[in-house]
Amino acid sequence: MINEFYKQRLQGKSVIRELSEYATARGKEIGYENVFDFSLGNPSVPCPQHYTDAVIKMHQEKDPMEIHGYSPSLGNTAVREIVAASLWRRFGIPYKTEHIFMTSGAAGAIAHAVRLVTKPGDEVIGFAPFFPEYRPYINDSGAKLTIVPADTETFQINFDEFEKMLNENVSAVLINSPNNPSGVVYSEETLSKLARILKKKESEYGHDIFLISDEPYREIVFDGATCPYPAKYYDNTLTCYSFSKSLSLPGERIGYIAVSPTATDAGILAIICGQISRGIGHNCPSSTAQLGAAAVIDETSDLSVYETNRNIIYDTLIELGLTVVKPGGTFYIFPKCLEEDSVAFCNKAKEYDLILVPADGFGAPGFFRMAYCIDTEKVKRAMPVFKKFVNEQYPDR
């Protein structure tokens, strides 16, 4: 018998994926170069040549069993050591090998982290706007995701609503900075205040509240800034990382959980993750991808194109009078629509072959997301089309 729960999921497919598929189909009709597809957050710059060279070299020189065989359940031990050393060096937190668990990307990291610190029926609090896949990530574990409404003026945490929603059933809080979809980077002030509240509530409730920090965009930060590292502010932090964006390796599906050394039971949490893998199948990520990422652990792709694209789009949106918070990182921008119905707004844009994502699923109705991880030349060609769309459809704005 087919599982009806997942069968019903077919009625609620990812809007992002549906729009991406539409853009591909439309491209076959008119040429994809004429479709201005801002739907999918797929990195548009190549991975570092050093990564490619390292992978080629290991395939030529290493024992085939090392690169093609299963890694240990917690990940390649040498790779875990390299990851821990890098985090210690960069953020001043004394991570050791025992604190690192290798995963199949950030999705695999979150899948383990949630099961690590919740039981069925527990509540996890997240913040709008948020990546829509958080709902199945959390709810399918047996926990319940509750979303705090957005502060649409800044897209920092809406603390007034957050404190109202905190309760004894909350065992974890999920954050994403730099944020998909807003592009906002949580400030030190935001993270410090969040830490103070969580520490106070841990004492009040008499149990741990873990912070699950989803950080795949950590290296994509603009204007010469750096992204504050949440684990520096709060002891019970599980950092979920992916190399997909920093190294342009989404297809390799490689990431990790870093357990803060100051967290409760820090020495055994990665080991417990190995047991969680037995039940969810996210075990033993690619040995090649682990070794390749370790070879370029402190490198990134050339990410500068994303800041260039942000500036072009942001300046155009401001010129047209749209309301938008300037992204501090990622490759997304999150403007307010020119009408209340974001789906209607984005459908009108499709008539101009502009593929924009309505933000209802991100928990921020009335906004839309643009993923600008595309060639700058195409971004430049898209702006006159965007101006035409706005001027023709909303002349009285």
Annotation field: number of helices: 14
Order of adjacent strands in the largest pleated sheet = 2-8-7-6-5-3-4
Query: What structural class is derived from the secondary structure elements?
Result: alpha/beta
Termini Cα gap: 54 Å
Q: Can you give the mean pLDDT?
A: 96
Provide the domain count.
2
Give the helices and strands as they follow along the chain. HHEHHHEHEHEHEHEEEHHHEHEEEH
Quantity of strands, as a count: 12
Please, what is the CATH homologous superfamily of the largest domain? Answer: Type I PLP-dependent aspartate aminotransferase-like (Major domain)
- Overall geometry comes to globular
Oligomerization state of this entry?
single chain
Which short descriptors sum up this protein?
single chain; 14 helices; three-stranded antiparallel β-sheet; Aspartate Aminotransferase, domain 1; Aspartate Aminotransferase, domain 2; alpha/beta; 2 domains; 397 residues
What does this structure look like?
By secondary structure, the protein is an alpha/beta fold. It has 2 domains: 136 residues, Aspartate Aminotransferase, domain 1 (Alpha-Beta Complex), CATH 3.90.1150; 247 residues, Aspartate Aminotransferase, domain 2 (3-Layer(aba) Sandwich). Helices cover 42% and strands 12% of the residues. The protein is built from 14 helices and 12 strands. A 7-stranded mixed beta sheet has the order 2-8-7-6-5-3-4, with helices on both faces. It has a 3-stranded antiparallel beta sheet with strand order 9-12-11. Strands 1-10 form a two-stranded parallel sheet. Helix 9 links the parallel strand 5 and strand 6. Helix 3 packs across helix 11. The radius of gyration is 21 Å and the shape is globular. It starts with a helix and ends with a helix.
